[in-house]
Amino acid sequence: MQNTYDQINSLLDELESLSLQVEKKCDEIVTIIINQNLKAAA
Description:
Helices cover 95% and strands 0% of the residues. By secondary structure, it is an all-alpha fold. The mean pLDDT is 96.
């Protein structure tokens, strides 16, 4: 049973890492969109 818990914990760690990467990418996308809008408004 411990092995199953270890696997689950490992997957949760992986998910946490991926969610941070997704968050970073979303921030990058938002920054690009804002910059494009600023250029268009100028």
